[in-house]
Design goal:
With 277 residues, the protein is of the alpha/beta class. 38% of the residues lie in helices and 14% in strands. It contains ten helices and eight strands. Strand 6, helix 8 and strand 7 form a beta-alpha-beta unit. Helix 4 runs parallel beside helix 5, helix 5 packs across helix 6 and helix 7 runs parallel beside helix 8. The radius of gyration is 20 Å and the shape is elongated.
Length: 277
């Protein structure tokens, strides 16, 4: 593999059975850390609205906000591919709107590819964006923007139990093949499940990765970096099944800092304060 990851590298990884590692990042520092860890794909998710900014749902996030976040992540990544989510709106407004949004992301944020939620409903947009020279990461399955179609009530994210029903195996294979034919470079099959997910991954030649509800039956995995490290405040009261508990570390650190301030002690890392003596 070259110093910088390419889409050709991901295609080769699928062919060789090497799993693709993707993370969702929303800021420069996490992006730098993820890139140093050697991940293959850093995706700027519209989940930033719910998980970092406290929005009630991802539909509140705007195009301008996504460009700001994507710029920050792009600055932090040298090796991995950088992708950005379309917010709700530009894709739904039509093909011309989608192409304009994709061009903005490339020109203003320098991303390598764009991710379209519910892409199976907009194959024309996938083709048009690809023809404009911008690779498409096509998301389908039970996604935040398509959950209601499957009878899943959207709250923050669908439950891991909300797998695409096995009875929809052929429909999902058809959608995946249509997205490949439309020009998609990569597929994100959300809540795929081991039966339908494995069948879809075998049915197409482009890599199929999975975010929420994915698994080893796909060509790779996506995980929010903040979820992997236990960043959310909820981790304080409900110890998470994560690789770290950054929320607890942060609480302990800020509590210790507050104690030093209240006790008139020097704070760690602060400018040294001369003794009154």
């Amino acid at each position: 593999m070259s110093d910088r990851v390419t889409l050709r590298d991901l295609r080769r990884m699928k062919d060789e059975g090497t799993k693709i590692v993707g993370v969702v990042a929303w800021d420069y520092q996490i992006a730098r850390i993820a890139d140093r860890a050697g991940v293959d794909l850093v995706s700027v998710g519209d989940t930033v609205g719910v998980n970092l900014w406290g929005h009630s749902n991802p539909f509140e996030v705007t195009m301008d906000e996504m460009i700001v976040v994507a710029r920050a992540v792009r600055r932090g990544v040298d090796r991995a591919l950088v992708c950005v989510d379309f917010p709700f709106g530009p894709l739904q407004e039509g093909t011309d709107s989608a192409v304009r949004a994709a061009v903005r992301f490339v020109k203003e944020a320098g991303v390598d590819l764009v991710k379209l939620d519910g892409a199976a409903d907009f194959p024309g947009a996938v083709t048009a964006i690809t023809r404009a020279g911008i690779p498409v990461f096509a998301q389908f399955g039970i996604t935040p923007q398509t959950a209601l179609r499957y009878g899943v009530e959207y709250n923050a994210v669908p439950s891991a139990a909300d797998q695409v029903p096995a009875a929809m195996r052929e429909a999902m294979i058809t959608e995946a093949r249509q997205l490949e034919e439309a020009g998609a470079a990569l597929l994100n099959f959300t809540n795929s499940g081991p039966v339908v997910g494995a069948a879809v991954a075998d049915a197409v030649s482009i890599p199929v990765v999975g975010g929420f509800g994915g698994g080893p039956w796909l060509d790779g995995r996506m995980r929010m970096a903040h979820a992997a490290i236990g960043y959310a405040a909820s981790a304080l009261d409900n110890p998470p099944d994560t690789y770290a508990n950054v929320a607890r570390i942060t609480l302990d650190a800020i509590t210790a800092y507050a104690g030093d301030v209240r006790a008139a002690r020097q704070v760690a890392g602060g400018v040294p304060v001369p003794s009154a003596d």
